[in-house]
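Researcher: Here's a chain I'd like modeled. Treat it as a single chain, no partners, no ligands.
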Amino acid sequence: MIHDCNHLARRRVRGIFRVVGGGSAGIGRSLMLALILLSAVALLRAPTLVVPIFNSDEAYLAVQAHVLRDGGRLYHDVADRKPPLVPYLYAATFAVRGADDLIAVHVLAIGWLFATALVLAWDAKQRSGASAGLWAAALFVAASASYLPAETQAANFEVFMLLPACLGMALAGRGKPLSALAAGALIAAATLCKQTAAVTLLAAGYRVFTAPRRGLGLLALGAAFVTVLGVTAAALGPREFYFWTVGGNAGYLSADGVLSYAFARFAIITGSFLVANFLLCWLVTRAARTRARRDLDLWVWLFTSAIGVAAGLRFFGHYYLQLLPPACLLAAAPASELGERARKLVAVGLTIPALVFASLGFYSARIHDMPDYRPLAAYVREHTAPTDRIAIWGHFPEVYWASGRMPAMRFVHTGFLTGASGGRPAGSATEHFATPGAWELLFQDFHTHPPRLVIDTSPARLRDYEHYPIARYPRLRDYLSEHYHQSATVDGMVIYARTDSASTAAIR
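Model: Modeled as a single isolated chain. Structure tokens:
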């Protein structure tokens, strides 16, 4: 039986690679085309092999991975409002690399996206033939690079959720209970990368429903999904897992008083993303006109993915990556049916914006006005020991990562305390949007790990934190006044050093 399983696994792997070459030109040609596809992914993400960091999301993940590598526990010693899988992928990459090197994570992301393209090619071939398989892969590789570099080139949650979600959808259509079981587990893995991947279960469920033995298939799909999430919650602590991924996010998801701002963001970000991927959108509209009743599961997937993008009404550019797999699968068949001249024009039209946006990645810090974290990180390294911890008031996790110092609090940023977060008008947050119980957790953490330095980014007006000065929060202001003194200013940020005689007794 083990032999049979191994034989089946080898056949599936060969099948995925064979689809890239159309299944008729032999393994050698298939591998050559796969190598070309990998080279295209690497070329379009070449800036990620040079630029060390693309946005603060990467720094947040790196901070969590650092704590995990040091023996800390997710949601207990370090926390963000995200599921656990991506921080552990970062930690594993850092462990292999032997350093907290984000370039190594970028290499992993290249391989991850390449594998995603192969899965899409395999799925498209099963639906519409080998030519459609090639187009699905090509469309995905081009579209995944065709937007602003901080949104597409960062190794963020969306990048890592795509592969298990796509493989889960592909297996859901195999018409076998065991395939449905694997699909449920994979979609759960995608959900453990980012919560919004859970909507893929609806599309997978529809696909299983249209297959033979649908009752058993739906049971297997749902059981695997629930089991994987349940086991993960049990391993990390059910209460903490639920709180940080669902229960504690009410303030973050709230859109009170910001609907007009959110609508403007929706119009700007959605419009610019559609323009950047105009040809993909055109092909999807052709699919709607000519194949509206075919591949209904893909339309369900596209619609539910749009709901995932809109969740929370934040509309960050990288959220739109979730739309690409169903859109590319829908567009693949119409693309393969174009005439030769039209296919060439579409290929050129896809390549040019992808290359232009990819080249902008070399200038990402300037384009996105990212603050220079290096002077402050250098100061921290010079004035602390490797075992010292620091606390940053604001949104500047790059300093934790670049200095090699762990946070003295479990929060990767202090938006959990102030309610401030991205995708909202500057200064609009109040403690109504803060995470419940966050202030108590902060002072518990300060008692366990008294920070050697506390860095206040608000005087530097960094990432809108001029609206949230420490003076606005009396408990923290008094704590600093009692135990710390102002020691330096770096790039406008005020640094407080712990007074040598400061007591480390419990903070009341």
